[in-house]
Specification:
Blueprint (H helix, E strand, L loop, with lengths): L2 H5 L2 E6 L5 H8 L5 E7 L3 H10 L4 E3 L1 H6 L5 E4 L6 H10 L3 E4 L7 H14 L3 E3 L7 H11 L6 E9 L19 H18 L2 E9 L4 E3 L9 E3 L5 E8 L4 E7 L6 E9 L2 E4 L11 E3 L15 E3 L11 H12 L7 H20 L3 E2 L22
Parallel strand pairs: 1-2, 1-4, 2-3, 4-5, 5-6, 7-12
Antiparallel strand pairs: 7-13, 8-11, 8-17, 9-10, 11-12, 13-14, 14-15, 15-16
Helix pairs in contact: 5-6, 6-10, 8-10
């Protein structure tokens, strides 16, 4: 890469202009170091509408984005079933890739994708990038500074009645490659791996109480669709660092309770932000020296204020742009995405077999954002 290339704004092309593209475009077009130059979709007119809304100068199909010489990095917002195919096409076109989660649907194809990127000297980043938000960045620094002593175990909960209650096209969220485990699990497991390191083994149980669900909103309300995967999964994790965790992921709960994440240590317990959000409450409670009946009321929480600018989806793309220019590692890497995928597929295997499954992959420690990282500063 020449000095000029290393310091210019990164040209971004987006493939897939469905629901999630709105927030990506809102954020990416607000970052001075990013130049969104093209959008593409299976339905080109849908891409055209997004291009006009956000003043993007080129639009068309996926092939048009891949052929655009101004595109340095492709943001892959397609459905999970084609994530690997689209990412591979982008790498073969000489583009870096940021892909929505999950990075793929099987281990071998994902490993091959990472190998191709290595071979071509290109980078892959993988959602979620919520772990780059001020919530988890602040929590990670506080844990490193000893706020709870040595981390011992974690608990997370995501339970809802399901996306068929609000999504106009929910069938893909109950299909192979999704369900609560592969749709929501990436947020929780990516955040925890970023805090504690890789996961060594999992055990799990899953259930599919309804074989068919009904769309409840939008133009197709009343239509039914099949449920292909467990809609409730409970997972036990064992981390390489010696910690363990319990995790509930459900689309079957009348009680809506999402974003519960706690980490418990030798010198305190911490409430973490919702892993699906970029910001949230961070608070620590310390153990009592001794406990009497009078102590069993409300414990005193120590609030930890967030540090850093609040943005949203797309911050991982910005980190990649600056990392490419600075020749440093980016944070939400393809390797992290591949390890989290391995964990989730292993949980599927464990739920099906009833056996504990060892995780075959690992990932290097996940770094923090550089000190003073300002998404809205022009640095390139």
């Amino acid at each position: 890469m020449s000095a000029a290339e290393a310091t210019r704004r990164l040209g971004v092309g987006i493939i897939g202009t469905g629901v999630i593209s709105q927030t990506y475009l809102e954020n990416l077009t607000s970052f001075p170091d990013i130049d969104v130059v093209a959008v593409g979709d299976l339905v080109p007119e849908r891409a055209r509408a997004k291009a006009e809304e956000f003043s993007v100068r080129a639009w068309g199909t996926a092939a048009d984005v891949l052929a655009n010489p101004e595109v340095d990095l492709v943001v892959n917002l397609t459905i999970p079933a084609v994530h690997v195919a689209v990412s591979r096409a982008a790498l073969e076109a000489g583009k870096h890739v940021w892909t929505e989660k999950p990075i793929g649907l099987d281990r071998d194809a994902t490993r091959d994708l990472l190998a191709l990127a290595d071979e071509r000297g290109l980078r892959i980043g993988a959602a979620p990038d919520t772990l780059l938000g001020p919530g988890f960045q602040t929590a990670k620094r506080a844990i490193a500074d000893g706020a709870i002593g040595t981390p011992l175990f974690v608990q997370t909960t995501f339970q809802t009645q399901g996306p068929d209650a609000w999504h106009p096209e929910p069938a893909f969220l109950f299909a192979n490659g999704a369900g609560p485990l592969l749709d929501m699990g990436p947020y929780y497991f990516s955040a925890l791996v970023s805090l504690l390191g890789p996961i060594d083994a999992v055990a799990a149980r899953g259930s599919r109480p309804q074989l068919e669900r009904t769309i409840r909103t939008g133009p197709r309300a009343g239509e039914t669709f099949p449920v292909e995967v467990p809609s409730t999964v409970q997972v036990l994790t064992s981390f390489a660092g010696g910690q363990h965790g319990t995790h509930l992921l459900s689309f079957d709960s009348a009680l809506e309770r999402a974003g519960v994440a706690e980490i418990h240590g030798s010198e305190g317990s911490m409430v973490l932000p919702d892993p699906n959000m970029f910001s949230g409450r961070i608070a620590v409670v310390k153990p009592l020296g001794s406990i009497s009946d009078a102590d069993r009321g409300e414990q005193r929480w120590i609030e930890i204020p967030e540090q850093g600018a609040l943005t949203g989806r797309g911050i991982g793309v910005l980190d990649m742009a600056r990392a490419i220019a600075a020749d440093r590692p980016h944070i939400a890497t393809g390797e992290l995405g591949a390890h989290v995928l391995d964990v989730m597929l292993s949980a599927q295997d464990a739920a099906a077999s009833g056996e504990t499954v060892r995780i075959s992959s690992t990932v290097a420690p996940v770094p923090l954002l550089p000190e003073g990282f300002d998404p809205f500063a022009r640095t390139l």
